[in-house]
Design goal:
By secondary structure, the chain is an alpha+beta fold. About 25% of the residues lie in helices and about 30% in strands. The protein contains 5 helices and 8 strands; from the N terminus they run E-E-H-H-H-E-E-E-H-E-H-E-E. Strands 1-2-3-4-5-6-8-7 form an 8-stranded mixed sheet, with helices on both faces. Helix 1 (about 20-30) packs across helix 3 (about 45-55). It is globular, with a radius of gyration of 16 Å. It binds coenzyme A. Coenzyme A binds near residues 139 and 143.
Length: about 180
Amino acid sequence: MDVVSLETRRLVLREVVESDVDAVAWLLGEPRVMRYIEDGKPVSRADVERVVLPKVMGGGWWAARLKGAGASGAGAFVGWFELSEVGGGVAELGYRLHPDFWGCGYATEGAAALVEHGRAVGLRRIVAYAMAVNAGSRRVLEKVGLQYVRTFHEEWPDYIEGAEHGDVEYALDLGH
Ligand SMILES: CC(C)(COP(=O)(O)OP(=O)(O)OC[C@H]1O[C@@H](n2cnc3c(N)ncnc32)[C@H](O)[C@@H]1OP(=O)(O)O)[C@@H](O)C(=O)NCCC(=O)NCCS
């Protein structure tokens, strides 16, 4: 995947770069963002620099900003999207938006663009995972065309509220 930016009606998605450190630390430092992710806890700025950025700058992660030159809020960082290849023409879809921008349809808009991008670059299948109790994330996946595949239970080192309901897998075959 060699595309470095994608545009939707209201967003510009550009591959994450080192200068996004403040934005990513702001996003992952927010407890409401991390509630259903990893150990359910916010990530420190030091870990963003040391662990997160080196991983997400490898391609497949996009920083999303509002479009609209001159308009109020233009250029604001709203969160990140992921469409990272896991092998064999399969890529994993994901997203994390800052609560300041929830409920505006941005997750659906960005995720739909990445599904189209996946189709355009010849991916075979898109998969996604969420905690079963993460209703918002599941709704986004359904709205962009992924279908529920299964519920599964994994042992995680740290308990997160709702973990007893397991995780869910969604997928979309792109027909390549
Ligand atoms: C999940 C998340 C991406 C949704 O972002 P968003 O921009 O608010 O989503 P949208 O506005 O595109 O909404 C998409 C749909 O989900 C629904 N939705 C969003 N949040 C919801 C929630 N908490 N509970 C139930 N439905 C929800 C919306 O109503 C909408 O459905 P509708 O069109 O039928 O009304 C956002 O809450 C987030 O980043 N959460 C923290 C990170 C996270 O959990 N990421 C996913 C990890 S698997």
